[in-house]
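Two folds, back to back.
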Amino acid sequence: MVEWFDFATYGFLAPVIARTFFPSSDDITGLLQTFAVFAVAFALRPLGGAFFGALGDRIGRKKVLALTVLLMSGATAAIGLLPSYSSIGIWAAVLLTLARCVQGLSAGGEYAGAVTYVIEHAPADQRSRYSSWMPAATFASFSAAALLCYFLTANLPAEAMDSWGWRIPFLVAVPLGLIAFYIRQRLDESPMFQEVLNSATAAHAPLRETLRLQWKPMLTLGGYISLTALSFYTFSTYMTTFLREVAHLPADQVLMSNVIALAFAAAMAPVLGR
C-alpha cells in the first residue's frame, strides 16, 4: 500500500505541483508539463518490473519488496524536499523528473513482485481470490492519499498549501516506508520459490526465456493492462485536476469524491475482481 500512496499523491496534487515547479502565464501549459513528468514514471514501470523481477528470481522476493519500498519512499520524500522553480530554476523540474523516474522503477518492481509473492503463497485453487487483494490494496492506498490531500486542502489556506502544505503527504512517505521495510524484512519466502530455487531445472535466464516462449501472451496481457491503467488514472487522477481547474469545483469536494469512490472500489475488488 505504501508505494501506491506515494504514487497517488503526485496526481492528486498536480495543480499545486504545476504552480511550484512549472510556473507559467498559461495554467494549462504548467499542468501539461506536470502530467508529462507524471507519465515518465509509467514509461519506466515495465523496466522496473523486468529488472526487479529478475533480481527477485536470484535473491528472493522479500528482499526485492523491501528494496522497492525504500526506493519509492526515498524518491517520494525527495519530492517533498525539493526547492521550487523560484529557488533554483529549471533544475527544480529536472530533479522532480529524476525522482519520478525512481518512483516508476520501484513501482514496476513492487507490483510485479508483490503479485508474484502473493500467488506463490496462495493455494492452487485460490490464486484469483488471493491476488484480488492486490488491486484492493491499490485502491485503498489511493483513497488514503486522497483523504490526506482532502484534509490539508480543507484546513489550510491556499497560500499555505502552495507554500508548504503540499509537501506533507510526500514527507509522510518516510515513516510509512520504514514501517513497511521493517515488516517486509520479516516475511518468509514462499515454498514455491524455495522449490524452484533448489531445482536443477530452474531457468538460467528466466526473463529471456519468457520473452522467447511467451511473447504473444505477454503482448496480449500488456495491452489489457494498458487499457485498465488508462481508464483508472483518467478517472482517479486526471479527472480530479479537470474538475478543479476546468470545471472549477471546490478542491476539497473533488478530493472527497475520490476518497469515497476509491474506498468503494477497494471494498468491491475482492468480491467482483475475481
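---
second:
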Amino acid sequence: MPDTAAFNAEIIQSSARVIAADAAERLLAQCPQAHAFGDPPFQAWHEHLTARLTELAAAMRAGEPNLFRARLAWARAAFESRALDLAELSASLTAIAHALADQLPPGGADAARPYLDAAAAALNGDPAHHTPEIGGRCGDIAARYLLALLEGDRRAATEVITDACDAGLSPQDAMLEVLIPVEREVGRMWHLGELAVGEEHFVTATANLVLGTLRTRLPMAEPNGRSVLIASVIGNSHELAGRVAGLLLESAGWRVIDLGSETPAPDLVRAAADFRADLIILGAMLSTQAEAARRAIAAIRADPDTADTPVIVGGHVFDEAPDLWKKIDADAHARTIAGIVELASSTSRAG
C-alpha cells in the first residue's frame, strides 16, 4: 500500500464529515436536481457523502481501488431500484474530488484519483442484473421458506425446513442451500428497498432458531482433538454464516468456540489463547471492516500464545478484493462456507 494513500486515507477518515460538508455544498450548488434527494437536502447528502468518504478511506488504506468500485456498484443498484437519477450519484463523485483537492495536502487528491476513477467506472455501462439468490436443486424449498418468512409465520417457515429434512434433505443442505441463500436474498431485497429492516431482522432471528433445530439432526463425528475459534470483526454484526460454519465443523469433530459478532481484537486473542485454538476463522463483510480485520490479525500475530495460529478469513470484502487476505497476513481465504470447512483441516496447526 503506497504511503501517500495510507497517509491521506487517515486524513479522509478523521475529516470525513468536514469534507462531506464541503462536497455536499458543491453538489447542491452545481446539480439542482440533487435537492430532491432528501429533506433537508444538505443533511441527506452530508450523511450519504460521509459514508462514501469512509468507504473511500477504507479502500485507500487497504490499497484496493476495487473495494470502492464495489461500493459504488452497490449504491448504483440502490439508486436504480428507487428510480433515482444516476447523474446525481456521478455528480457526487465529482463533488468529492473537488472537496478533496481543497481539503487534503498537496498530492492528496492525486492519491485518491485511482479510487474515484474505479468508482466512476461502476456507474457507466449497462446496469447490473441482480439475480435472486435462491434457486438450484433446493430452490423450491427455499422459496416456500422465504414466503412463510415474508408472511411473518415463523412456525410455518420452520416446518418447511423440518418437513424437508424428514423427506430426505440433509441438515447440511438445509443450511447451505436454503438458509444461507434466503438470508442473502433478504439482504438483497432490503438493499433494493423491497424490505424494511424489521423484516430482515425477523428473517435472521428465525434462521437462528432453525439452526438450533438442525443441529440436533446433524451427524456428529468423534472429537478430533482440534479446536476452532470463530468470530466476526468489530463492525460486523452478521454471524449466521459463522454459526453455520461452526455447526458443520462441530459435526466433523471439531471443538467450536463461537464468539459471534462484533468481537474486539483483544478479546479474540485472549479467547484464542485461553481455549488453545488450533484455527481462527474471522469474518468481515464491508470494506470499512477491512482495517478491523487487519488489526485483529496483527493482534493475533503479536501475542506469543497465538502468533502461529492459522487464520482463515471470509466475507464479501475479501471476495471483492481477492488479494486482500494476503495483505492483512491471513493464511487463507474461503469464498463459501463449504470452502471454510474444506480448508480447516489443511490450514489448522496440529492439536
